[in-house]
Amino acid sequence: MPICDVLLTARGCVGQCVFCAARATYPEQPYRARSPQAVMAEIAELSESFGLHDFFIADDAFTLQPKRALAICDLIIASGLKAHWTCEARVNSMTPDLVHKMRAAGCHQIFYGVETGDPDVMKLIRKGIRLEQVEEVVNFTQAAGIDVMCSFILGFPWDTPQTIGQTIEFAGKLRRMGATWPNRGGPGRGFVTAAFYHLTPLPGTFIFEHASELGLKFLSKNWDHYTMAAPIIETAHLSAADLREWRLRATRSIELERNASPVETVLC
Ligand code: SF4
Q1: Ligand 1 near 125 CB (within 6 A)
Q2: Domain for residue 205, yes or no?
Q3: Is ligand 1 within 6 A of the CB of residue 12?
Q4: DSSP at 61
Q5: Of 26, 91, 138, 158, which sits 20 to 30 A from 184 (CA to CA)?
């Protein structure tokens, strides 16, 4: 089994998403990126000294600067290394050219933070993306043969049973764009799936700092409980039990969309 290394090519983000701590973590300098040459030197070192070719690029948003991402891909391709990697990327920085270059450089899976399937909630969370844009990007990513993982958050202050229902429906729509299970990892289209997490406001985020005026009630201030796998807030519209139930329902709905995938539903 190949060993997968974790690579950091940049840290932080300049996004304004109200639920995310990436910017709050580095208030002085929200985003810092290494040069493509420095990143390539580390990849070459991992390969030559340790035989590592599989890695996860753990940047908050690898493609935040598309030209830098393209330059890193060009260097990997020119090196002739058989790299095999995954990353997290921002929907609004993706183009078909970038996706094809990433595929050629060995990227086999991209994680997109989609967060919600409701257009009004999307505006309120200040993600800076549109649902139509998400559909377009997921479609050209899977068409390039890259697997796609879309992540969604349940329990925004503005979420209701109706908006969560729309999120589940949208996740299913994206799922159906991808290849069916037996073709996963094969040539052609990539696999598309989705994961659902509980809103977990961290200090410094807009939602944490404005929690009470947004109608949120914290169930715990023990940071060990802040795993995103269990609700640590209740909203004006949704209790913790409701949120648990919605996450289960959302995860099961994606499993049903997997077309007889052998993967079992995993809820941690
Ligand atoms: S959610 Fe993603 S795009 Fe938004 S601020 Fe955080 S890292 Fe940036």
Answers
A1: no
A2: yes
A3: no
A4: -
A5: 91
Question: Ligand 1 centre and the CA of 30: distance in Å?
Answer: 11
**For residue 24, what pLDDT band results from cuts at 50, 70 and 90?**
confident
Provide the residue range defining the domain that includes 115: 4-257
125 domain-assigned: yes
Query: Closest residue (by CA) to atom 6 of ligand 1?
Result: 20
**In a domain? residue 265:** no
DSSP string over 159-218? --HHHHHHHHHHHHHHHHHS--GGGTTSSSSPPEEEEEEE--PPTTSHHHHTTTTTT-EE
Residue 146 alpha carbon to ligand 1 centre in Å: 21
Question: Based on the structure, what is the number of domains in the chain?
Answer: 1
Number of Cβ within a 10 Å radius of residue 110: 28
Task: Give the length of the chain.
Answer: 268
Of the listed ranges 3-7, 26-30, 92-96, 165-169, the least confidently predicted one is 3-7
